[in-house]
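Reply to thread "Modeling small-molecule complexes from scratch"

Following up on the discussion above, here's a worked example others can learn from. I took a protein sequence and the SMILES for copper (II) ion and predicted the complex. Inputs first:
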Amino acid sequence: MFWQNAYFFALALSIILILPSVNFPFMNIPAHGQSTASPISQEEYDKIKNCTTNLSKKPTPVEYLTHFNCGHISKDESGKTVRQFTLIVEENQKIPITYEGHIFEGWTFNGTIPGPTIRVTEGDLVRIRVINSNENTHAHSLYSQPTHYVKNNAFTMTGQPGGTISPGRSFTYEFVAGPYGVYPYYCHVEPMADHINRGLYGMMIIDPKEPRPRMTEMAMLLNGYDLDLDLEGPITLPPVDSIDGVETNMPMNSSSNNNTNAGTNMSNMNDVSVPSIPESGNSKSASREKRVNEIYTVNGKAFDYMMNPIVLHTGEPYRVYIVNMLEFDSVNSIHVHGAMFDYYSAGTNKTADYLTDIVTLANGDRGIMEFTYDYPGTYMFHAHQTLFTDLGWMGLFDVRGPPVITPPSDAT
Ligand SMILES: [Cu+2]
């Protein structure tokens, strides 16, 4: 009896001792309430990610393609990786945006348009200190979808913490990175169209804890520039009396019974006066109609990858993180010649949504492309809106190496 009890005691004790150290993958519940350990060390993962070792470097638009800023790294008391970034907002920056001499009066995060590509791993504690330079004359802020998880801060109406940051002030956004995916970040101060058009945006990549299949990676941020800065200003509703066709005390149809909600009664639809768009309202509502981009780019400078084709190699897999931060045009797109690509919307799933050679992106939309070239050659990639293409959004892949598969014309 004693030995029987001792046996069960020992069995129970060993289960108690062993259980907390076992991770049950099917349970998806971290032991001890801690996050599941990454299957790869932070140092090793950062090497695979091609994290820059020069955090203060201002990459050129060509360098931007492969310049990933993974922050200053430390560990907190629990061993969690902490990544710290500093974004300095500066106005009145002279940014070359073409090879023909166009200089844009930009506002920048760390001196470039787009701002640095911030790269972290899901579960990291991220601190981004945004400094609004003393010389600036506007308030600014930082918004990105993952910053919803900021702690200890009141949220403003826009859902962002900390409100706006006045010139000469700073604010540190702190959040746990997740879910994995690719995101835009940008200034969320009104009028947002102006703060974005001026250049206050960038890309944030949150990598999954378990790395994606290894391949050469690039970042492409699609943007545009409205050079008519005198059209800036708040967008407001047009004054009612400036609009033809609006009856401010619209009479209800007397034959429509006693329904006090007659304005929504479908039988009355033909009686409702529809406001027409004013041809000349107040100056601000009129200016909104005039705001158009004169120049379109990928990574900040028109035709940069026509002048500097991106060298690729046949048979090798490539991954492109793509974000659309175009203002004033409601859609943008990327079309690739010579290869089809797997597309992952928002990068939040490891299974591709579809195979395509073109993807359409609304404002703020993003995703991940993965592709391989079978044949050498010079292949164009560009917006499928031909106007955008002609105004700067066009580039070349210079694919080198032997054909990976026998070209059809050589087949026996
Ligand atoms: Cu701003």
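What I'd highlight from this example: The helical segments are 2-18, 42-48, 61-64, 192-197, 283-290, 304-307, 386-390. Confidence is low (pLDDT under 50) at residues 8-35, 247-286. Questions welcome below.
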